[in-house]
Amino acid sequence: MDEQKSNCEENDSEPTECVQACALCNCVERSLHGQRELRHFGPFSEWLALKPSASPLPQPGNDDLSSIGFSNSPCLAALFDASVCWVHHWCAVWSEGVKLMENEKLENVDKAVISGTQRLCEYCKRLGATIQCHAEGCSRFYHFPCSAASGSFQSMKQLFLLCPEHINKAEELGEEAWCAVCDSAGELTDLLFCTGCGQHYHAACLEIGATPIQRAGWQCPECKVCQTCKPGEDSKMLVCDACDKGYHTFCLQPAMDSLPSDPWKCRRCRVCTECGVRGLVLPGSAQWFDNYAVCETCQQHRSSTCGVCSKPANPSVALQCCSMCH
């Protein structure tokens, strides 16, 4: 029977009130999109006179790319709480106009935050975008997670990106645009950017996909860490078949004793194709079927309903169970 019991759940921490979120991408610190640590910048003297905001910021986004950034322009007083703003390291470093100084000090982060409140991301069409395409004359801006999700080329050495329309200009960078496996630029649109080391890999060379959720926060095999404990013991690592993120078996809730032999999906990537319920909203004891495509409730409905007439089973008539979908 094709059944996977979800006793391999991530130790998720849901955003709560007063949780700090990035003033650019609106994600919390333990984001899956590779923005690195959440840093506070300031105090900025020009924002000391701001009165506390009566309009709180929207609920932080995190795992869903559709929740990156802001749907409406956020209030500056809410972003600069006590004249301090919180921004992920990579969101700040890659922003247009921000300067990286000695000891990793950054200048003009406040200016980037202000400009982001009025600038739409080319990929998600939400506000907070501050990373511009490096091609001359191009006016496209992105959030850091969206730049990867869009398939843009990212250069960690030079801290700039090339949008999909201008990605061919990456060939001018020589070896920096080469795949770490095949040592060639090859198909530039197939390159994945590692948020850990900055190297590029062809998805085809690693025999994995290149979907937006895989690209955002992607880590190469050498840099991949558990998304629950981050850098830690490098053993018993499970890799999600959908998003390619890694999790220790012992960091899951409840923990797993061994690595499963079948393809595995993290809770964030489990979506029932019949009712649309997502894995994160179900209890840890829930079961999944058909490669995590059918939830326990829908599977039970399948088992008690005729697949032809859709009527409940008659006690006097036995239903025949399909060996594939059950």
UniProtKB/TrEMBL annotation:
PROSITE patterns linked to this entry: EPHD, ZF_PHD_2, ZF_RING_2
Ranges for domain PHD-type: 53-167, 220-272
Domain RING-type: 179-224
CDD domains the UniProt entry points to: PHD1_KMT2C_like
SMART domains for the chain: PHD
Keyword set includes Transcription: yes
Coiled coil: none
Alphabetical keyword list: Metal-binding, Nucleus, Repeat, Transcription, Transcription regulation, Zinc, Zinc-finger
InterPro entries associated with the record: EPHD, Znf_FYVE_PHD, Znf_PHD, Znf_PHD-finger, Znf_RING, Znf_RING/FYVE/PHD
Protein location: Nucleus
Gene Ontology molecular function: histone H3K4 methyltransferase activity; transcription coactivator activity; zinc ion binding
Annotated GO biological process: positive regulation of transcription by RNA polymerase II
Gene3D superfamilies: Zinc/RING finger domain, C3HC4 (zinc finger) (3.30.40.10)
GO terms for cellular component: MLL3/4 complex
Designated name of the protein: Uncharacterized protein
UniProt source species: Mola mola
Lineage: Eukaryota, Metazoa, Chordata, Craniata, Vertebrata
